[in-house]
Amino acid sequence: MLRPVALSIGALLLLLVALPDSFGQDPEAAGDDDDSAAPAVVEAPPVPVEPLPADTLVADLLVQLGEAAPAHWLEADEAMVTRGREIIHEGRTTTPEGKRSRVASPGYLCTDCHNTVREDPDLMASDPEARMAYAVENDLPFLPGTTLYGTVNRTSWFNEDYVKKYGTLVEPANRALRMALLLCSAECSQGRVMDEWELDAMQAYLWTLGYQLSDLELSEEQHQLIARAVDDEALRSDAIAALQGAYLPYSPAHVREAPADRMAGYGNDGDAARGADIYRRSCLTCHSSSGKGDPVRGEYHLKDSKGSIGELYRNRGKGNNLSFHQTITYGTRPFGVPIAYMPFFTQERLSDQQVDDLQAYFEQTLGVE
Ligand code: HEC
Ligand code: HEC
After folding, report:
1. Nearest residue (CA) to ligand 2, atom 2
2. Quick one: DSSP state of residue 158?
3. Whole-angstrom Cα distance, residue 317 to residue 325?
């Protein structure tokens, strides 16, 4: 309900700008007026203001406009941001005392499962098919976790089925980003409980990955409204609504069911070309060779070859981990040293259609009719 209000104020501004000075006057009659007639009073149209810089952080702007700072806001300096970036991209950093920190996880980096750049063309939707098209266009991996870009703009984490499925383990992480970081580093990455300074550092880095104004799909009028609201308290609630109405405040998460008939898949018409993208941008990011003879993660080695694909395809009907339907739907249990496991894909991270696309790619590669 808030969006139309913001729009109508924008529309009103536009209307005022568009009105000619002589509005309400008959141009023919104007010249004939005798001097005694009072001139028509026309309100000056608002002078357009400079829009705010494109790289303005939306989360900062909301606080500037009067929203309460979220619990994950913190006073950060460059050194913290650097430490956070190093933990998330490299697994370890330098402690505030100048020592090498312990690795966050022996088996995983955060970036094995999360991108740190934008990955959705439309920030109002979590659509895996649109996301894959965007990944191809921007050469991004297609991963089981939500991108960390925009994490600080969300108001809940590990949503819906994660809460339903894991209950009390996930509830604190659902409500607080700091708890989500704690949970994901200890559980998802099979790492350790991070120290307070490490959580601060990751939070500081994530703050720099917040949505910028240019990420949001806003009209000219909304940009005007937002820029004016900085100095005009009366416009603030509409400006806040315009900003908050331009992105999803959480990343939806619904678990899938394996197909009833694993041999057949979900029964959609699969697209082999899209399936190839999924295999390369998703499966192979972890399972292909690291260049040292081992897979990037874990022990299960896959290539973009008839051999690997034949094995995946042959085993698809099984009720165990050898079936890709099993691992995509349920993931695998952690095992081995260093501990690795496969996270499951929610419907928002890989659609049923995309699973069928993957199967179509396998069939095309193997020449199966
Ligand atoms: C093995 C895969 C994996 C690794 C490694 C991993 N995560 Fe996650 N993470 C997930 C999955 C799956 C979720 C579930 C929610 C989602 O992102 O869809 C998640 C959720 C999150 C969330 C909440 C996202 C949301 O909006 O719901 C944050 C924040 C997060 N992880 C941060 C991290 C950080 C920081 C690290 C590194 C210390 C890390 N993760 C390592 C898989 C992983
Ligand atoms: C985030 C990393 C990651 C991604 C992405 C990923 N996997 Fe996995 N997968 C693993 C890990 C780790 C294991 C555990 C076995 C191991 O140590 O390699 C595993 C296990 C498996 C297994 C079971 C192997 C066995 O012998 O038990 C199959 C099959 C599998 N993955 C297929 C896939 C397919 C198909 C995709 C793409 C849709 C995919 N994986 C995407 C990390 C990943």
Report:
1. 286
2. S
3. 8
Q: Provide the pLDDT for residue 38.
A: 66
Residue 298 CB less than 6 A away from ligand 2? yes
Q: Which amino acid is at 292?
A: K
Cα–Cα distance between 151 and 139 in angstroms, integer? 21
Residue type, 195: D
CB 224 within 8 A of CB 49: yes
Show the beta-strand stretches assigned E in 313-359: none
The finding on whether 297 has its CB within 6 A of some atom of ligand 2 is yes
Inter-residue contact 91 to 103 (CB < 8 Å): yes
Integer Cα distance of 207 and 250 in angstroms: 16
Using a 10 angstrom Cβ sphere, with 0-12 exposed, 13-18 middle and 19 or more buried, the burial of residue 357 is: buried
Domain coordinates in residue numbering, the chain: 1-14+41-253, 272-366
Q: Using a 6 Å cutoff on CB, does residue 286 contact ligand 2? A: yes
**Ligand 2 atom with minimal separation from the 355 CA:** 38
Cis peptide upstream of residue 343 (ω within 30 degrees of 0) = no
Q: What angle is formed at CA 217 by the lines to CA 5 and CA 151, rounded to 5 degrees? A: 105
Q: What is the pLDDT of residues 196-242, one digit of tens each?
A: 999 999 999 999 999 999 999 999 999 999 999 999 999 999 999 99
> Cα Rg for the chain, rounded, in angstroms?
26
Give the three-state DSSP class for 87. helix
Distance in angstroms (rounded) separating the CA atoms of residues 58 and 215: 9
Residue nearest ligand 2's atom 19 by CA: 342
CATH class for the domain made up of 272-366? mainly alpha
CB of 345 within 6 A of ligand 1: the answer is no
Residue 287: pLDDT over 90 = yes
Average pLDDT over residues 43-48: 79
